[in-house]
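Schema walkthrough. Field components (list of strings):
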Amino acid sequence: MNSSRCAACKHLRRRCPSDCIFSPYFPSNDPRRFAYVHKIYGASNVGKILHDLPVNLRAEAAESLFKEASYRIKYPVYGCVGQITMLHQQIQNAECQLARIRARIA
Amino acid sequence: MAGGTSPCASCKLLRRRCAKDCVFAPYFPPDDPHKFAIVHKVFGASNISKMLQELPVQQRGDAVSSLVYEANARMRDPVYGCVGAISYLQNQVSQLQMQLAVAQAEILCIQMQQNHDDNHMIVPLLPASNYCPQLDDIIISDKSHLLFATNYNNNHNLIINNNINNNNNNNNNLQQYYLSFANNSTSSSSTNNVMQDPLKRESLWT
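Field assembly_structure (string):
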């Protein structure tokens, strides 16, 4: 048995194999990271998503899954989609302001 | 099937009996199987069920819509999902903020130039380049009144009071301009945050 299990295997209470797909991205010193993604996506889905990606992209994918899960836990109704909507509104407001100011300059 | 009605898309996919109080049925009608398929693929039916059950009924529709959106984003971009869209949009907001700051500084320069052209002298207490300083926030009123520019980061207060009196006669009665310069702190680069801070609350989904 691996003397130092990753956060995922600790959470799932199982052996952490040497080729554990979670261990590079969910270290044991940050249990919250895996807890969040597991709550929203489930360990099985996270494993499938990571498995389907080339190794060099898995770290980014794990990070984005954690961010999305964090948003969803913080904002249970809209998740990160609420942030996207807000940013679209900001862009629209800024474009209107810019158009008005440029009209004054012209 | 309860009451002879068609099972919802979720129960069809999961191949189970669609109960009368099925939590999925109101949001995953049988005529749109793809909608549930995609959220099930990304989140899993069990997790969706738990999420919906933790929400008041009136918020579940919006929650399902946002879950479908996120699932679609994750399918399109398995690495970054929605987070990629957020990064892209934040970048756009920053660029627009910079453009706004430049445009507002341009207006300030134009108005200052117009004031100068109206035969009113501005006493140069500052180097020429400081006539168009880096500005965080500009409030510009009618040019015949107060032109007020403030750089909050640098604590510079550049106040030009242009009190034009069109009834001045031809003697050398120069208009007085007030230029006060407070607190010559070292200038730092402005972030040009002309936008208000984003609202820290969930926005409405329509």
